[in-house]
């Protein structure tokens, strides 16, 4: 009997505040904004919610503080059908936080304060061992310590599962972590840092970067913003998918939507081409949804 697929997201949870302004402030400038919207965030939390929405069993391993922000994040996971049994409440910390300031075009700049996310470690992996043993696909990001990602990835690989990393925000990955990755998803900036070559945001540029990174990782996805997505594998497979043309309201969290859906479709056993098509479509839908309508 084959068991049902499980996506486990090991990673970050942030309390997000999106501030809408006519422009992002320059050095020393105060800008009068039009509105602000609190919402659940953190790349890990966003990816878990997007995965669960497809119907695949999804669990989150993370850490929040024992404060109102942490309670808000856990309530959101609960409402969105993400199993949060292994989201730890750390009384000594503050919950991770992000503030993003948007301009009229929907572009933004953001600051994150990691707080409790930095406490993730071996203890969290040990506590969630049973879950990790039955995980089909583990999803990681770079908003928690490398050592914690390594411990989680090792546990899943030993049990026969696969590991996908969204290497965001851009930072170098240790050799040990690299060796545990099956699928890596990066944007142009992250690809540039990891591949060591300048990446232009075109489909051809993304494919070249994906092929370079496929010398290190078995399967590579490079997202190239408004241009689309490129895939390359160590076995020589290549896929190019053009971005859908939509009215851009906000690109915040679009990468997370893409990754959560991609992970779910892969866990369901879809082909990479089908998984990428669905992820691309759902991310386009999110991009055309205004911040105020995102719940
Ligand atoms: O990718 C968007 C996410 O990155 C940061 O982690 C924010 O919390 C936000 O939700």
TrEMBL record:
- Tell me which GO cellular component terms the UniProt record holds: cytosol
Show the CDD domains listed in the entry: ribokinase
Q: Which organism is it from?
A: Phyllobacterium zundukense
Q: Which keywords does UniProt give here? A: ATP-binding, Carbohydrate metabolism, Kinase, Magnesium, Metal-binding, Nucleotide-binding, Potassium, Transferase
> Region (Disordered) spans which residues?
25-49
Can you say what this protein is called? Ribokinase
Q: Which PANTHER family match?
A: RIBOKINASE (PTHR10584:SF166), SUGAR KINASE (PTHR10584)
Q: Which part of the chain is the Carbohydrate kinase PfkB domain?
A: 7-289
GO BP annotations listed: D-ribose metabolic process
